[in-house]
Structures are given as structure tokens and as C-alpha cells.
């Protein structure tokens, strides 16, 4: 019993000592990596830590940032808001001025006020809640992932500006994902003033027949249906529309951009539009870091790995450019300078959203999703 | 003539309901009227509701027959329907490799699916319900839920959890083309098959020896035994017929929606069960009536109010009917003998 306790104390002391020496080593740039490194959602957070380590290793091998080596300070928040606030306080008191993270939107929201007050810049590879950037409360926040509403924005822009549709029916499956998207799409269409929403309805997933709602779409005079939800309902609705000889356009989301949709809907799938993340598998930077991850870990990288590589590259590039860790100078560099990432060259807009990490539009042609250029 | 007048009354009543719930001002009401002005919208919704109703009816009959005979809610019925649909998928895929004409494929597939599902229904009754014939009422109910979970997971393992495309076995009828916008060939086929099945079933129960024995078993099992009816056989026959009907339903519905997976039985089963209760569980005309009432309510609620509240309307109706007629529309109030 006693020996175990002693061992704990020794471990704690060693850890404290190593942290202390880390803090004392003046000649390094400290980058915090905060996120879920343990718990249920660790699989979302650990690839980010690994990505940051791989990128920083390369940078240090090339002499660091402006000759100063980079040091990573990892803090676990387990995706829990209360732990995230603690982690943020720890990082701030350790003198960290730039942080990659957090993993989850809820945790990010809890930690952001602490970082803002300490003038610490935060760049998240995975927090997608729109309000984090859009209410303008946190000028210190950036992200390398498209926000939840970006998909709806892409759908609506394409429908209104490219397809030039004026009457739109919005249908959703009443789920968090589908209804959320549908509501964003509705507000974007109304803001644009170029088109009207003639129908906004939810359908019950799994129902045996959607002909009543299809008749309602027809009666509403909609030229296009924007659907928020997954492929089983989408294929039923599309098939029933075609059975009723309606040629109404159908635009949907990445829940429908799935090969099962084409398999099930068959010839009725032809011409359907769906949004999905841009394909990065041909990008040389993405290929390089995925290979490095595989060499180190013996497995394919997990969720948000490419986004985390992009975040680390963008942040270190901005630090080099700014020549300081001052939040405003680094922020200016992030907004003004393009940097090569797995997603191609990206930079950030005034709100902190990435320009260059976007959703693309795909269309079913001859039984395949083809990107619409 | 009578039908038309009746229909007009219904449309104005349901529209009135729509406006009352939406709380529209008079000028908005005019706009609303301009949007849904015509009789043909009503007719489109009517056919949509009838299609739904026939789909529910094909399943509800199985629930109500089993309940009528042994007083058991057969929760595995939705899974028998799903297995029927899978059998149809496999058989029709094999047959289409041999390049047989579509009508032959449809008929052979329907027969095979009905036989195979009937075999499943028979086996389920033998394994899960017959050993519990004299157990407390709750035991076979739990056994039925267990069977439902087992069959669903069995198909999940044997197939995949993914949705699979279901071939459109019902051919497109050329003479239906002008009406395609209102009612498709598939809807028409479902309506006709459902009607035929119901007529045949009623005829069988009314006039055949087996039908008489079924009615006798349903009225009093002990007395039926005493007059020499092989009750166990009658119960097996009930399961065979109910399961075969479910398989026909599975085939028709799956080719209507074009996709199946192992969980389609659940939602369809719940709705059909609701329809059976609505009409009075145990009563065969009740199950049919309940199915049409449910299907039409859902279609008109979607069409004139909002599909968001489709289920809310369906279940509110169920509650209302059960308040005023606790045994369902055509059910007989049973007095529990203690």
C-alpha cells in the first residue's frame, strides 16, 4: 500500500518537475494543444494532438520558428466544458499564448472567455457550432473546419445563384441534423430575398409512403426541394416525386451524398444534387501527413486529422510571419496570408472562418456523384 | 352522386379545421384557398390516404386475426412482414437472372414469399407461443417481443444493416400513364390486391369449415375443443394465413418504396397495430376500417395542415376513439371473466 502511494507521489513530483523545467525554458515558443485526449470522445481529440506533434517535429527539424524551437503543451478536457475551463486556466498560467483546440464546441465555448481575457489566440480543427465565430464575441477564435451552417449556405447559394430557382420547398426529417440544416437554409433563403420558401415541412422517417407530402410539394409550385436528412428518406421522396412525373430539382446534404442513395434510388437518383466535403485525397500535403501518421502509429489517421494539420500549419506560418506571439499580430497574419494546407491554400475571414475549406456541390450523373464545377 | 356530395362536405370540414388551427386572417385565408383551391388536390390526397390505408390493412389483418383467436398481441408480426419482403427480394433477384417475364416473376415471387413467411409464422407459433398456451397472459407477450428482437437481429446478421434496393416488381401499366400524377400503377395494384385479399378472407371466415372453426375457437376455446375442433391446428392455420398476408404486404410495400432493411418491420408494425386497435382488435372488418381511417387521417393531416403533425393527428384520433369506444370502432366490449 505504502509503496504504491510513494510511487504516486514520486510520479507526481517528476511530472511537476518536468512541467516546471518546461515553463522555465525561456527560449521556446509554446503552443497549447487542448482537447479530448481521454474519455468517450478521445478518438476525436487524439488525432489532433498527433497532427500537431508531426507538424511541429518537422518545423523543429528545420530550425523552428524564426530560429526558436516550438514546444507543445497538451491539456486534456475530455470534451467536458467544466474541465475545458480548467485546462484553459492551466494553459494561460503556464504562459501559453496560442492554442490549438478545443475538440468539441461545448468545451470550446466554455474555455473561450478565459483565453479572450488573457489575450490568447485559439484555433480549433473541429468545433463547428456557428455562434462561436458569428456573434463576434471572440475575436481571438479561428477554425479550420467549415461551420455547421456552411453546408446550408452552400446549398442555398447554389440553388439561388446557379440554378436560379425562385420557389423552394424545404423538407426535413425532424432530426437534429436534418432539421438544423433545414432551418439554416430557410433563414439564408429569406435573408437573400431572391427566392421564397413556399413550403417548410418535416416528414416522419421510416414511413411507408410519402405521397401526401409529395402532392403538397407539387401543389406548392416549388421548382426545387431542399432536403435536410439522410438517404433512406431522400430516396423515397425522390422516387415518389418521379413516379408522380414531377421533374422538381432535388438538392440535399452530405447525409445523402452516399453511394447507397444512388444504389437504392436507381435511375431516380439521376440529376440529384448533394453537398459534401471537398475531396482532399489527392492533395500532396494531406498525402504526406497521412503517410507519416501511418508510419508512426500503424493505422489510418482518425477524425479531424487533416483539419488539425491545417490548423497547425496555419498557426505556425502566422507565428513566423508575425515574429511574435501577440494575439493581434498573429490574427492579422492569419487573415492576410495564404498558407498551403491539406485543403489547398487557405486564409481566414474577419470572423475567423476559413476561406478555402468549404463544401462542394456534387450531382448524380450516370450513377455516380460528380463534383459540379 | 352521393359520393361527390359527401366528399365536398369532407373537404370543407377539413379545410375549416386547417384554418381554425392555423388561425388565419380572412385575406390570408383567401391566399390559402388560392393555394389549395381544387377538388383534384383533395382527390390526390384521398388516393394517397387509401394507398396508406391498404398498406396498413394488409398488416393489421395479421395482428387482429391472431388476437381474435388467442388474445395475443403478436409483436413478431412486423418481422414476418420484413422476412417476407427479404424473401421476395432474394427470389426475384434469382428469377430475373434467368430472364423470366415480369408477370411470372411477380407471381412466383409472391407465392414463394407467402410460403416462406407462412413457414416462419408457423415455426414462431410452435416455438414461442404454443409452450406458453396455459401460462399467464404476460408470458407469451414477452415471448413475442423476444421473437421480434431475435428475428430482426437474425436478418441483420444474415444480411446487412444497410438499406438494399428493392426491384420494382409491379410493372408500369401503360393505360395508367394519364393518371400517373394522381395514382400510380403501384398504388392501384396495392389497392386492388388489398381489396381482393380482404374479400377472400371474409369469404373464408364466413363460409368455409376452417372459418367456422376459427370463429368457434375465437368465441370459446374450451367449448370448441369439446365439440371436436382441433384448436391447435386452427391456431396454426391462423398464423399461416396471417403471415402469408404479411409477406404479400411486404412484397407490395417494398416495391412501392424501393428499399428494405432489417428494421422496416418495426414502424410499419406499430402503425398497423395502431390501426387494428383503432378498428377494434380481434375484428377483421374493424382492422380494415381502422387502417383506412388511419391512412386517410395521416394523408389529410399532411395535406391540409402539416406533415410535422402527421403522427400527432393519428394518435390523437386513436385516443379520441378509445375514449368514446374503448373497444375500438367495430370491436365488441369483452367482459373479463375472473
Question: How would you characterize this protein structure?
Answer:
The complex is a heterodimer of chains A (373) and B (338). Chain A has 373 residues and is α/β, with parallel strands linked by helices. Chain A has two domains: 2-145 and 282-355, Rossmann fold; 149-271, Rossmann fold (3-Layer(aba) Sandwich). Helices cover 47% and strands 19% of the residues of chain A. Chain A has 13 helices and 15 strands. In chain A, strands 7-6-8-9-10-14-15 form a seven-stranded mixed beta sheet, sandwiched between helices. In chain A, strands 2-1-3-4-5 form a five-stranded parallel beta sheet, sandwiched between helices. In chain A, α7 (176-192) links the parallel β6 (167-172) and β7. In chain A, α12 crosses α13 (327-336). Residues 17-25 of chain A have low confidence and may be disordered. The longest helix of chain B is centred in the N-terminal third of the chain and has 32 residues, at 39-70. Residues 1-22 of chain B have low confidence and may be disordered. In chain B, 44% of the residues are buried. By secondary structure, chain B is mainly alpha-helical. Chain B is globular and about 60 Å long. In chain B, α3 (39-70) runs antiparallel to α10 (231-257), α4 (77-97) runs antiparallel to α5 and α5 crosses α10. Chain B has helices at 2-22, 26-35, 39-70, 77-97, 102-129, 138-158, 185-207, 209-219, 221-226, 231-257, 264-279, 284-305, 310-324, and strands at residues 164-165, 259-260. Chain B is built from 13 helices and two strands. Chain B has a two-stranded antiparallel sheet. Chain B has a single domain (38-324), classed as Orthogonal Bundle (ABC transporter involved in vitamin B12 uptake, BtuC). In chain B, 75% of the residues lie in helices and 1% in strands. Classes of the chains: A alpha/beta (373), B mainly alpha (338). The A-B interface holds A 174, 201-204, 206-209, 211-213, 215-216, 218-220, 231-232, 235-236, 239, 243-246, 260, 263-266 and B 35-36, 41, 44-45, 47-49, 51-52, 55-56, 162-165, 180-181, 184, 186-187, 253, 256-259, 261, 263-264, 266-268, 271, 298-300, 302-303, 306-308, 310-311.
